[in-house]
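Re-run requested by the PI after the first attempt was lost when the workstation crashed. Everything re-entered from the original request form. Ligand of interest: zinc ion.
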Amino acid sequence: MPLETPTRIVRELARHGYNAEREAVTLIAGAADPETTLARAIEHAGADAFRVTAADVRAVLDSGPNATDAPVSASSTAATPSDTTTAEADALSDSESASTDRSLDPSSSTGETKAETTTSSQSSPPETGGSNSSSGRQSDPSLRSLSITNDMTGQSTGTGEYGDFVKVFKDRYEKLSRQLRGRVNHRPAEAIQSMPGGSDAAMVGLVNDIRSTASGHWLIELEDTTGTFPCLVMKDRKFASAVDELLMDECIAVEGTLADDSGIMFVDSMHWPDVPRTHKPNTADRHVQAALISDVHVGSQEFMAGAWHRFADWLHTDAAEHVEYILIAGDMVEGVGVYPNQDEELDIVDIYDQYEQFSEYLKEVPGDIEIVMIPGNHDAVRLAEPQPGFDEELRDIMSVHDARITSNPSTVTVEDVNVLMYHGVSLDEVIAELPSESASYDEPHKAMYQLLKKRHVAPQYGGHTRLAPEEQDYLVMEEVPDIFHTGHVHKLGWGKYHNVLAVNSGCWQAQTDFQKSVNIDPDAGYAPIVDLDTLDMTVRKFS
Ligand code: D5M
Ligand code: FE
Ligand code: ZN
């Protein structure tokens, strides 16, 4: 693929898992041999880096043999229509598999509370400028409280070595087995192997394999830090249907009886880390609201500017005076090279220009609203989860509102309410693998319930969701959130699971050609508004 445009360079770097400093792109574009310069700059940056810097490129250029010509502008060149790159070919197979899961009944409604429609009388966008605060928002900003825990930005230590995988799974096991320990009297796999035949036994482990036997029973292999042990769930057991809801690598506990030769356990009960039914959510001690949104996709031809303007206009009205926070769960922009043929639907082809434009839309939001943002799979950060928050250059571009930028996932405590924000890529997998009663695109909140039950935002390793091994498993839900906020699937759905409010927040992008081809009918232009004092929710429609 010739690298004649900055867009292609950015895309090629993204394909290798790197962001790029704008100046680095300019330098590569201006090099005599952009391909070689790019390859060597990646090498220079090293596997630990998230992005290729101008310093990397300069080091490469200085060491010859390919000297630079005069630098070219990085921002104004248009992309040429794409040919199929390897990344696109890979993604194509994803889209094919996703398309088979989409033939679900689109008729069922989502959520529990009412939807309200807001029709704004203003059709023109309000004037822009970060400090506009024309709403009736009276509250004293000193009453606000907002803090972030679990931000792993800048904490990444993973190198992708085998040892990192061992560490991250060990940490997952430790954290999740702690949730189960009080409930079963479990033994390590190694000890179970040497217990007498016929003994009662219990084990906590990560699901290593699930197979159905010739006679229709389920054989689940569990793994702990000492080894693995096979556990048999007979098909006629009441809980056998729960096996359909298992994902690889999630942590469960089983209790049962060992076979005569102690080679297998016959399972009598299964347990999940889960949210206790008695969970009592924290609430704000004053009437204050948060808008939970995601998937803005600025830069896409389908970005719904009109709906966004109406949303921003509404935020300036008295009806929105209690909305003091906006939490955005990823996909600020459409990005480049995320899906095959995506560039045919791009309105803005340069990723930095997309963020500049996103920032313009943010300026329409009243300046006295606190904003928190995490990245998603369309954003210019590494794709593997946990995803660190945006780099300095992008923070700079999006600095208008002094938004808090944190990693995906992160826990944001707003007025005492713990909100777990996660973009939601694993939801595709939960929906694809679980029976449709347990999780579907029309009821995305039910897929979220499964993640809450597993106390992990992306249990399955090696599937569609890319996971980066780190010292610890940032994706475990160690604490029970009060609100779980995701996006990604572009469907609106919400409900309560053991008193936790799960909200999947829809999008601001109308149906794309791809979505049309696979029958995804997105819920675009809605803003779920949560009362932080009661955790009640109202949905406002702006499309
Ligand atoms: O994804 C929005 C939703 O659409 C999410 O459920 C994935 C799915 N999607 C969209 N485009 C594709 C392609 N090309 N392949 C597979 N799945 C896709 P978002 O990441 O926000 O675009
Ligand atoms: Fe999205
Ligand atoms: Zn997404």
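Saved to the shared folder this time. The pocket of fe (iii) ion (ligand 2) is lined by residues 295, 297, 331, 376, 378, 488, 490, 507 (CB under 6 Å).
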